[in-house]
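We modelled the chain as a single entity of 345 amino acids. Its sequence is:
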Amino acid sequence: MLPSAPSAQLIRLTPQGKPGETFGLVGATSWTVGRSDRAAIVLNNPWISRMHALIQWLPEDGFYLIDLGSRNGSFVNGHRVTVPVRLQHRDEVMFGETRMQFICQAPRLNLPLKPEWEEEWDKATSAMKVRCLITVVVMDLRDFTPLARQVPEELLAQVVGTWFRQVGDILQRYGSRVDKYIGDAVMAVWIHPQNAPHPYDLLRILKAVLGTEKTTSNLHLQYPLPFALRLGTGINTGYAMVGNTGSGQRPDYTAIGDTVNLAFQLEAATKTLNLDVLLGATTYEHLSAGDLAGWLTRHWLQLKYQPEPVPIWGSTYAELKQFLHTYGFVEPPTQNPISEGRGFV
């Protein structure tokens, strides 16, 4: 059993910034925030979704705020929450248009400093948009709508919040940062500073995908779900603009362009083709260059605005697992910057 969380509070702020209603974060390790009367923290406001966000406490990391795909967003100190955000004492939190302040007098954790590469990319993306070679991975929960009809809202929020956090940990371990959580989907980006991805980089991405699939399929062992969850994955490599697409006090760092759009279309096509993973042509070519594509089969995808179908390559997770097992998955050399963890924030 997890130890109970330290005493913390969310305090609603008036339009003048003065403290108002107080919501205690005690007696549990997670709290849902939303308009539903089943939420732990009920905010009766039309800008608030029924299950808007989740606050989780982890013994080793502290409190996290996780947006649950809300229509009007969650913000911490003016920054939109697109990935789980660790909360600090006196952070200002907004759910839609409801301003609140997070109060927690627990001792600050001795958290690791940002690696140098992450600070460099923070500076670059905050000031400009840059054209980069990237690999985009889009992963979407299958059968999420039927699940939402069969389980209580608060349980669904717990499942999605846990999934978001666990997926983020896996992707960071393999050299990326989650770029966005979108409802029941995750978009992750790896940046390749070379003219072409190193084969080891693509292997790490595939390893991250397989790790995420395992975590997803095991969620029903953590929560009383009616069935095991499944995952569809689209992977695409190409050039895209990376940087700040937000404005003012609400920046939004992301990657945009045809490379990203195709990754979403590939994920959607996994359903119609009854496959688990689909790769774009460029990703396939880079794998082929390293003699690492024999496990994939060719298919065709009709894209909008293109007269002819384009080739794509796919597999099941079982085939991907067998490929990685047969290959042995040799860890990459340390001099490779991507392999050392240069990802996208």
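As a brief sanity check on the tokenised model: The first strand starts at residue 8 and ends at 13. The longest helix spans residues 153-173.
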